[in-house]
Amino acid sequence: MTEIDVNKLANAKAKGKRPYFFDDPAVERVLSITMAVATELAVTRERLDTVERLLEDGVPVTKANIDSYRPDDDAAQERQQWHADYISRILRIVHQELEAIENESLNEDSEKLADKYAAA
Amino acid sequence: MNQESKVRVPQTAKGHRPTFFDDPVNDRLTAMMMSMVTEMWVMRERLDSIEALAAEKGVFLTEELERFEPSPERAEERERMRQEFLDRIFYIFQEEAEDTDRGDTEDTYEEAVNISAN
Amino acid sequence: MANTLPPTFDRTGRHALTPAVDHDELARFNFLTNLNVHLGQQVSPGNRSAYEKRVKPAFKKAAGRDPETRQDLRKAMRNDPYYQFWAALRRNTMEQRQQSGRHVVLRQLDDLIGKAKSFNDGKDTLKIDGQMKVPRYLARVDNHCMPGSYYTEVVADDILAGANYETGLFVTTAGSMSSKGDGGGRAIVNFVKKSFADFKPKRILDLGAGIGVNTLPLADAFPEAEVFAVDAGAPMVRWGHARAQAMGYDNVKFIHADGDNLDFEHGSFDWIQTTMFWHETSTTAIQSMMKKMFDLLAPGGLFLNVEQPNFKPDTPLYDQFTRDWDAWYNNEPFWSKLHVMDVFELVKNAGFDPRKLFDGGTEADIEQGQFQPWSSTLSRHKHELKDSGDVKHNQYKGERWYLYGGWK
Predict the structure, then answer these.
(1) C4 in any annotated domain
(2) What's the gap in Å between the CA of A25 and the closest CA on chain C?
């Protein structure tokens, strides 16, 4: 048996400076943690889906049955659709910003608009 | 229908979305966090429904869940899972430490790009 | 309506060595694949809008001119908040993919090494060079953000790099390379069979073959041929050989060697193939290796390389910038230079007759079913090539590959 630190090695970094895209590196850290949490949430949701499907089929909810569960085509499609929808929800703010960039008419500042209306 | 022709349904109400922090990136992070808070709660409620249905059908009761004590093996397994979970969440700190240990900077990366061009 | 969702991870091809994945590991791959697709399809295109609507005007205002080089553009984009967010998300997704794949392999490393050894030990189809010095171009940074790159050995008889590469390929390409990941190799075979129907190579060399995903289709196409897969990473070669054996290939030899220092006879190959390999080398290394390859080819032999198409004078600046992205932020440092190199000049300088050079395109060959219908929406290469005008992308079903080569 080889003694290795599995978690440390799994987390190892690729050689070559990691790019930091934000002015404040703290933002990079918070985003990284947020996305890791997003992954874990999705994983837990898929697990719950598996538990439900096992229960529905009357299969005992054991670790072995959960690990060996393979979705049929319909179930696979539904689960992938959930991931896609979930990602759209958590990244909604990014899409909002894109819409604002692409369509300036959607993006008038409310305070300025209020002034405009007041003057009209 | 291919992706190109797909109509993108607007997600934004017309009118500038106000940003409340000095750095708008914090508005973005907060928005993502709030979406995940929603997701978390939806999932929590779903689990509650499963418990309710399980009780109704006589599978197990929420009270039993509350009293449940994992076997030593299961407890150990949970401890391992918890450790791995935290390692995944906070991996970026290990990355930063490794960069620092190696003395890697943006400049050393640019150097690597330039050297490979020779 | 075409399916725009990627297949689930459990649909990938299995063989005797395939690492076991538990429920949550599988779910994690599913999520990361979907995230990859989402970033490519939904978020990445917004960078262009950010560029046109605010980065470019701001640059013009400050500099009194339009951006003139892709470096101008890259530096200007670094200040855009939308781009910053996309870039950080993309980098993070790749890191999570590496972490997940490595963890799966590492937690069962002893078992996988044991299995690989059972296919490798005593076979004359595998050669590992224990003394080989890691080529300089590989040692500088770990290519495509794979910690430890292709060559690092954590334990004796290590296979981590190879097994992690195979496990994660699905996530990175979102299944667009078929269930066995060999869509590129099969595309090459289709091109060769269609273009050179009478070509019957007896000895084939695939240089920079990695674990041989794209080598095995060559062996399928020419079962009588002796096929050599050469790579500089010992863990890749060990895993590739064991995998090929487990899948029933006995005409493929796996050799661990530096492509610049190959122990083959002059003129001993009818076909030398390189697939998505050049961009992980360097100018001096590829010039030198190209000369070696020319020397190893028999008269009348075929050289073929698959890469992204190079920039042309009319390749829009913005496309140059997106296609350069991996060079700067996904640890592919040579790609930026390779994009503007005159590769035909390089091939000619190695000794090829300019009249016997050619280029072309071929589509990734992916089997029907789960993997077929959706992959035209793939993240990575789509956003890079879609509007470049280099290749037609309107109708393609899988990856579109650019290739060029020559006859000796």
Answers:
(1) no
(2) 11
pLDDT digits (tens, 9 = 90+) for C105-141: 999 999 999 999 999 999 999 999 999 999 998 988 8
What ipTM score was computed for the predicted complex, to two decimals? 0.89
Residues C220 and C254 in one domain: yes
Check whether residue C34 and residue C59 sit in a common domain: yes
Greatest mean pLDDT range, A104-108, C36-40, C67-71, C271-275 = C271-275
With contacts defined as CB-CB under 8 Å, which chain C residues touch A88? 38, 42
- What's the domain count of chain C? 2
Q: With contact defined as beta carbons under 8 Å apart, do C259 and C296 qualify?
A: no
Let me know: does A16 contact B109? Beta carbons within 8 Å: yes
Predicted pLDDT of residue C386: 36
**Interior/surface letters C361-378, b for 16+ CB within 10 angstroms, e for the rest:** bbbbbbeeebbbbbbbbb
Q: Which residues pair with C205 in a beta bridge?
A: C228, C272
CB contact under 8 A, B116 and C282: yes
C348 contacts: CB under 8 Å, gap ≥ 6 = C354, C357
Domain check: are C269 and C326 in the same one?
A: yes
Query: Cβ of B10 and A97 within 8 Å?
Result: no
Cβ within 8 Å, pair C88-A28? yes
**pLDDT score for C381:** 39
Task: Answer for the pair C400, C393: CB distance below 8 angstroms, yes or no.
Answer: yes
Q: For residue A46, give the chain C residue with the closest CA.
A: C27
Range with the poorest average pLDDT among C192-201, C357-366, C387-396:
C387-396
Percent of chain C with pLDDT over 90: 69
The residue segments making up the domain with residue C337 are 180-407
